[in-house]
Amino acid sequence: MDGNPRSDETPETQAPADSEAEGASSDTQAEAAQDGEVARLQAELEASRRRVNELARGLQDLTKDREEFKQRITRERERMLDVERGNVARTLLEAIDELDLVLANSQQDTSPLVQGVRMIRDSLLSKAQATGIERLEVVGRPYDPNVAEAADMEVTPVQGDDQKVVAEFRAGYRLKDRIIRPARVKVARYVAPAQA
């Protein structure tokens, strides 16, 4: 009654309302801080995932490159072995050629010596074939400069025989897809018959 309007509330009732407001605001701040921390951790997690994916791709690329390198080395080694096999085979093929010449000059001879030479030649040829060396069949086929050398030419009046191999002077051989020695052949050449 001192002339001041009195509030119905006492100071005791005002204090808890202020502390509740302060508690709500500190809870909101704590939640905001916690949300910020969660967002930061999620960003770090996402960055870590991207880095792990990057490293995994790098590892896959490295493994792929390693396998390709191993395959390339294996192919190169096989190619070098084929070249060496071809070099060794040429020596063997020269011996077979000499035996072929002996047999060509004694076709009618049936003596034991000729039979022995034929057996040795056949044995060497089968051993060469067992190592992957293949004798080229060129007689009667169209002339191919990739597998044969034309050493002679024969004139033919038959147009269908033009550019066909008619005789073989020396056999040609192939090892896998590589010609180790081309055949030496005689090729037919068509010439129209003279009109009288």
How would you explain this protein's 3D organization?
By secondary structure, the chain is α+β, with helices and mostly antiparallel strands. It has a domain at 136-196: Head domain of nucleotide exchange factor GrpE (Nucleotide Exchange Factor Grpe, Chain A, domain 2). It is built from two helices and six strands; from the N terminus they run ααββββββ. It has helices spanning 11-105, 112-130; strands at 133-135, 148-156, 165-170, 173-175, 178-181, 183-190. The strands form two sheets. A three-stranded antiparallel β-sheet has the order 1-4-5. A three-stranded mixed β-sheet has the order 2-6-3, with no helix packed on it. α1 runs antiparallel to α2 (112-130). It starts with 10 loop residues before the first helix and ends in a 6-residue tail after the last strand. 9% of the residues are buried. The model has no long low-confidence stretch (mean pLDDT 83).
Task: Indicate the topology.
Elements: H1 11-105, H2 112-130, E1 133-135, E2 148-156, E3 165-170, E4 173-175, E5 178-181, E6 183-190
Parallel strand pairs: 2-6
Antiparallel strand pairs: 1-4, 3-6, 4-5
GO cellular component, one term: cytoplasm
Region (Disordered): 1-37
InterPro entries: GrpE, GrpE_CC, GrpE_head
